[in-house]
Design a protein that fits this description.
It is found in: Cell membrane. It is a multi-pass membrane protein. Its main location: membrane. The chain crosses the membrane at residues 12-28, 34-53, 74-91, 97-117. This is ATP synthase I. This protein is an all-alpha fold. The chain has one domain (2-126). It is built from 5 helices and no strands. Helix 1 (2-28) crosses helix 5 (106-126). The longest helix is centred in the middle third of the chain and has 33 residues, at 32-64.
Length: 127
């Protein structure tokens, strides 16, 4: 599980870098709505990633202890995505729907890119 924690921390670091770039975008570009929407979606995505990581750890402990296994929280992730949509639809002058959805997908994109990078790094090490 230690490598799982390191992987999660690496993902959080990458997402925080993206949030810093988005914040600069809000401050220095005329596309405030786009960058605010990306920030909203990415923050909710980061919370979903943290929640999923916590649930996976509990899931692994339950399996190791041969206890009953609970769900991984799909309903809570859907509720958070619905919350983001409600915020966007309530404040259309500040947020846009498409960049918010892209922000919601950020953690998954970061996971995929990190996986490919770690695989490339591992393959390069073995050759």
């Amino acid at each position: 599980m230690e490598t799982f924690q390191l992987m999660f921390l690496r993902h959080v670091k990458y997402i925080l870098y993206l949030l810093a770039i988005y914040t600069l975008g809000v401050g220095f570009t005329p596309y405030k709505t786009v960058f605010l929407s990306l920030i909203l979606g990415t923050v909710i995505s980061l919370f979903m990633l943290w929640n999923l990581t916590r649930k996976i750890e509990k899931f692994g402990q339950a399996v190791a202890a041969r206890k009953k296994v609970r769900t991984l929280g799909t309903l809570s992730r859907l509720a958070l995505a619905a919350l983001a949509a409600v915020i966007v639809l309530t404040y259309p002058q500040h947020f846009a729907l498409v960049p918010t959805v892209v922000g919601l997908m950020t953690s998954y994109i970061v996971i995929i890119i990190d996986f490919l990078f770690q695989k490339w790094k591992k393959d390069k090490l073995h050759t």
